[in-house]
Amino acid sequence: MRLGGRLMRQHVELVLAQQQRLAMTHTMQQAVAILQMGTIELWNFTETALLENPLLERAQDDLRAQFEQSLATTKREWRERQRLRGLGQREDAASLMKDERVTSLSGALREQVGFLAIHERTARILRGLIDCLDERGYLELTTAELASAFHVSELEIDSARSILQGFEPRGVGARDLNECLTLQLLDRAPSDVRSLAIEIVNEHLVALAEPGYARHLARQLRTTSERVEEAVALIRATDPRPGLRYTQNETEYIVPDVSVIQVGAHYVTVVNDWSVPSLRISQLYESCLKRGSREDQAYLQRQWVEAKTLIRSIDARQRTLQRVCDLMVEYQEDFFHQGPSGLRPLTMKAVADALHLHVSTVSRTVAGKYVQTPQGTVELRRFFVNGLPSAQGEDISSTQLQGMIRRMIEQERGAHPLSDREIAERLFAMGNRVSRRTVAKYREEMGFKASSRRKR
């Protein structure tokens, strides 16, 4: 081959090179999936395994059968009440054709990862970010925290987050409400109204709760009230919690995974092993491993490996859940005395660092789990709350801050209600640095109207 007057020689050679790759085996995938399952979901999963794998059998048949019968009776009674309540009502075609299978947010996003032609390392980071999403679809952990947890660079986290934010439903992967709404607005066709809506979301979102906001914003943004109303209509068409689209609307049966009981002056955790299927290897079939044809032995050997893997995965789930809950109860002991006002700031990364676990492991461990406490049955995720700095040097939890705001509003004079800025100033005088926007956010979450609408 001649190139630029020179004779180029072409040849083919075989090069041997070493390369490290992390691939999730079937065993690892099953362990991760079991760790994330709730009690009832795990029960159904093991029931299927018992039917398909002859080497598996229950270790406590009487107790399992009693629990299964109790759960089936509860479901049957509820369905009967629903049937009697609906007698005489016509079922339309849509309800008859409704698909009862509900896709989880995690499952929908993981399916979209599979459609991408990206490097396996990037796909692995994406799946890790998906596991860290909360039920709203938000990814509140900072880039630095995620990079440290996944042992990758911050640039790789930002790149993966950008890919995640392009998935459906639009708005997932956002850090906060402002970014969530902005992502959905950016998905619309470019226009002056869209640009105005994005500016309102990022700079004046709280002002939309005030009466006469259109006129006020029009003066600030140097536009007309009509344009402001058009922009606000775009904002109202967005979904502030896109992840909740995948939340089941049906009645959910909750079986606590952990119980917290008081022993003397302290509280201890007890993982409810009775509600998790206890499995063992069938001695009858295990004795057949060395008998029969080669095909029979090969089949039984594969089933034996799968049975052992399942038993180990369930045991690892229980031990990890015990460790996480032990640390949580030790740190959040005030909650069991005072209720939600006693919650202290606690992040999943702090727990992961203390237990030498990956933050995604902690996230999977608490997902869909419930704790039975003296204060009632509480979702395990509720014990992890963000903190804000205070003058005393110790962070104050968002739950404690909401309690302070609630008491201020409930004790205010009806003729002179406190504005968000006045509440922020009072909190600052108490040693808590909180912005007016944060006060407005917590006030809205608790269902309190703006000061102009609380005036009596």
From TrEMBL:
Q: Which GO terms describe its molecular function?
A: DNA binding; DNA-binding transcription activator activity; nucleotidyltransferase activity; sigma factor activity
Q: Decide whether keyword Nucleotidyltransferase is in the record.
A: yes
Please give the GO cellular component terms listed in this UniProt entry: DNA-directed RNA polymerase complex
Q: Where is the signal peptide?
A: none
UniProt domain RNA polymerase sigma factor 54 DNA-binding: residue ranges: 298-456
Identify the domain of life. Bacteria
What PROSITE patterns does this protein's entry cite? Answer: SIGMA54_1, SIGMA54_2, SIGMA54_3
Please verify whether the record's keywords include Transcription.
Answer: yes
UniProt keywords, alphabetically? DNA-binding, DNA-directed RNA polymerase, Nucleotidyltransferase, Sigma factor, Transcription, Transcription regulation, Transferase
**One matching Pfam family:** Sigma54_DBD
According to the entry, every stretch annotated as the RNA polymerase sigma factor 54 core-binding domain falls at: 102-285
GO annotation (BP), single? DNA-templated transcription initiation
The UniProt entry's sequence similarity note says:
Belongs to the sigma-54 factor family.
Q: List the NCBIfam families.
A: rpoN_sigma
Q: What is this protein called?
A: RNA polymerase sigma-54 factor
